[in-house]
Design brief:
Layout: H1 3-31, H2 35-43, H3 59-69, E1 77-81, E2 88-93, E3 96-100, H4 113-128, H5 136-161, H6 168-175, H7 184-198, H8 200-214, H9 216-224, H10 242-252, H11 261-271, E4 277-281, E5 289-295, E6 305-311, E7 317-321, H12 328-341, H13 346-388
Antiparallel strand pairs: 1-2, 1-4, 2-3, 4-5, 5-6, 6-7
Helix pairs in contact: 1-4, 1-5, 1-13, 5-8, 7-13, 8-9, 8-12, 8-13, 9-12
Organism: Leucothrix pacifica
Protein name: PepSY domain-containing protein
Pfam family, one: PepSY_TM
Length: about 400
């Protein structure tokens, strides 16, 4: 048996074993393609129409309203958008938020909760097959193994695709969709080759980055390439907040910040005239600095996000941290996160990632169909022949 034949059978067996899992992750990947944009569109139903002559509340007034609405929970961030009449978003945790009327300070609720819940369920399927609790480790192990097999399928598929003779009529049959094919088997073979070769690059990056998420050794390898040590995961924002640890009594013993929060917001907005969103983390009582983020991109482009540290006494910017200021290992790891979804390349990158995931769905279907015709269908044919004899 030739080496290419061995690779072919390994490719086929890996596809049969991991096909359904790859199909599940691909379908959910397609559904998650424009998650950020769809949620933003759904939240437009909560846009505010101010009364004539109304002026937005200052950040000082908004922060007081938010503290009351969130029971003064530490680590809450207020996100301001450049889009007119957009509610202020109070980010309480990763999956918990409130939309705030910027003119009254009243809560408008969590926003498009149904849409968010839909994407939350799809994300759970994508990451750990919707397993819950401790069973998530099982789901993560299954998707991680499927990602590794998918990576092998992609690499081996490139080798199998290479024609023996580099003639245009042969290359064209594997590079372009063909019409008037004699049967379904020829159609599936053509689709499998064409979609596989055109989407091989984006799929390679999508699957490789997924392996980094799935395995700690792969995550550590990213940092080891640059001679760095992988940082330990921290808890959600606010867990290490001193005010949160000490409670309300400890916070009451400290001196409140004297700076106007509105000045802090104005300083953050003035940092870049191209800002799309500005996020201000509400400081604990007695905090000496206030953290802010200025985003000039879509929200998923790490190179367009700048972290600001502002002095709590006078509101001036004391420290600026851009993406390039991070260590090479941290830069790469952050970029990997958004490269997986294509967001690091903006809306074009998201579209390419979505099309690649859609192509993967068809590749799984055509691959399993071809495997069925090669492995299973002959058994039925042989059985019918034996009965006929």
């Amino acid at each position: 048996m030739s080496f290419k034949r061995i690779i072919f059978w390994a490719h086929l067996i890996a596809g049969v074993i991991a096909g359904l899992l790859i199909f599940t992750m691909s379908v959910t990947g397609v559904l998650l393609t424009y998650e950020r944009q769809i949620i933003d569109m759904a939240d437009r139903n909560y846009y505010v129409e101010p009364a004539a002559g109304a002026t937005p509340l200052t950040l000082d007034q908004l922060s007081e309203s938010v503290k009351q609405l969130t029971d003064n929970k530490p680590g809450v961030s207020l996100v301001f958008s450049d889009t007119p009449n957009t509610p202020v978003v109070a980010k309480i945790s990763r999956r918990q938020q409130l939309l705030i009327d910027p003119y009254t300070g009243e809560s408008l609720g969590p926003g498009a909760s149904g849409v968010r819940q839909f994407f939350s369920v799809i994300t759970d399927f994508h990451r750990w097959l919707a397993f819950t609790g401790e069973s998530r480790n099982t789901g993560k192990s299954l998707t991680g193994a499927a990602n590794l097999l998918f990576l092998f399928i992609i690499i081996s598929g490139i080798y199998i695709w290479l024609p023996k003779l580099w003639r245009w009529n042969i290359v064209k049959s594997k590079l372009l969709f063909r019409r008037k094919l004699p049967n379904a088997k020829a159609r599936d073979y053509n689709w499998h080759n064409v979609m596989g070769i055109w989407m091989v690059i984006p799929l390679f990056f999508i699957v490789t980055t997924a392996v980094v998420f799935s395995y700690s050794w792969a995550n550590k390898l990213v940092f080891q390439v640059y001679g760095e040590e992988a940082p330990t995961r921290r808890g959600p924002p606010g867990n290490n907040n001193q005010a949160g640890k000490g409670g309300k009594n400890a916070a009451a013993q400290q001196t409140d910040t004297t700076v106007s929060m509105q000045n802090v917001l104005d300083s953050a907005k003035a940092y870049s005239v191209d800002w799309e969103k500005v996020s201000i983390t509400l400081p604990a009582a007695g905090a000496q600095t206030i953290e802010a983020t200025v985003d000039t991109g879509t929200g998923g482009e790490p190179t367009k996000q700048t972290q600001l540290t502002l002095n709590a006494n006078d509101g001036t910017i004391s420290r600026v941290s851009t993406f390039s200021d991070r260590t090479p290992g941290v830069q790469t790891r952050i970029y990997i996160r958004y490269l997986h979804t294509g967001e690091s390349l903006g809306i074009i990158g998201q579209t390419i990632a979505g099309l690649a995931s859609l192509a993967a769905c068809f590749m799984v279907y055509t691959g399993l169909a071809l495997a069925y015709r090669r492995l299973i269908q002959p058994l039925f044919v042989r059985r019918r022949k034996v009965k006929a004899a």
